[in-house]
Design brief:
- The protein is α+β, with helices and mostly antiparallel strands and 81 residues long.
- The protein has one domain: Glutaredoxin (3-Layer(aba) Sandwich), CATH 3.40.30.
- The protein is 43% helix and 26% strand.
- It contains three helices and four strands; from the N terminus they run βαβαββα.
- A hairpin with a 2-residue loop joins strand 3 and strand 4.
- It is globular, with a radius of gyration of 12 Å.
Length: 81
């Protein structure tokens, strides 16, 4: 696979589930791996993101939050090659 995306999520978050369900096939298509981090288990993310989850990150760059921005993910993939 190519590069990795990180999704900041919560176990009880329906928006997180929806975003991940939409992101997984897109990530397969674009050869991007996905790491999911539970914000509740990582206080360092809780302080920075609070209730803004889900958030899709590429490294330290935020690509989208709350809803999947397909074009932002595709643009990121084009940028990294």
């Amino acid at each position: 696979m190519g590069d990795r995306l990180t999704v900041l999520s919560r176990g009880w978050c329906h928006l997180c589930d929806e975003l991940l369900d939409a992101l997984r096939p897109l990530a397969r298509e674009l050869e991007l791996a996905i790491d999911v981090i539970d914000v509740d288990a990582h206080p360092e993310f809780e302080a920075a993101y609070g209730e803004r989850v889900p958030v899709v990150l590429a490294g330290d760059r935020e690509l989208c939050h709350y809803r999947l921005d397909i074009e932002a993910i595709r643009a990121y993939r084009r940028k990294i090659g």
